[in-house]
Amino acid sequence: AVRKPLCEAYRRGQQLRKDPALLPSTLFTLLARSRRRASLVLAGKWDGVGRLCGSRAGDFDSTLEGGTLHFRHFDSRDSSADAMLECTELALRHVEALLDSSGPDVIALYIDAIDTAGHLNGFGLDIPAYMRSIADVDARLSSLLAAVGARRAKGEDWQVVVTTDHGGTTQARMPEHLRRTFADCACVQKGIAQTGLPGIHGLVDMWQHTQTFLIVAGGRDIDPGEMLPAPRPEDVVPTVLRHVLGEDFRAGELG
Is the separation of the CB atoms in 218 and 169 below 8 Å? Predict the structure, then answer.
């Protein structure tokens, strides 16, 4: 038997919507409590990261418990590869400008191009359009990393964290019973329905859907090599907080 994807998480989310006071603190709220400055920059059609973090659409500075959050969303004119890369480049230039200034203490950048390519073409190493999107985004990160390097050259201790929140598969290659389970679950279709898309994610019993990665580079306290046991996405927050605030946190203690 296959568990219905995301049902428990969705029900929990509905409960939290009814009582926002129960929502766990985000990274940005935790930084603000220590009067640190943060920026959240989105590139692409999906603005869910901003909404989850309490941000509205647009370009603005928000006060959070004594600190500030700068939010900027570079929307794409459509979901084509060229349009997604265009807004990605605008977002990257914006982040580089932040780094050229006195800048915030933490910059979070979400790039939607690869996820969009996966949904429209399928997630997989054998999907040319998906692999091309990964290569295109990767090629455009060099100038951003150079800007970080320039700040390090001034004696600043910058840490770079790269991660993803889910994996994915090509729907046509999934067994019929898994496709049926996915289509029948109303929870996973909330927001953006995926049933008609070539690439999908959301089945908690398929490791390809839940597989993530975490790369941490820079920072005086980081030892090179593989991290064991393998880190999870929720480990990003305590890792960043440890670097910025110099305090140790456990993921379970942060909500």
Answer: no
What was the pLDDT predicted at 1?
Answer: 45
* pLDDT, averaged across the chain: 83
* Cis status, amide bond into 198, omega within 30 of 0: no
- Whole-angstrom Cα distance, residue 38 to residue 111? 17
Angle, helices 128-140 vs 142-153, to 10°: value is 30
Answer left, alpha or beta for residue 191, where phi above 0 means left and psi between -120 and 50 means alpha: left
Length of the chain: 255
By the 8 A CB rule, do 55 and 32 touch? no
Band of residue 70 on the pLDDT scale cut at 50, 70, 90: confident
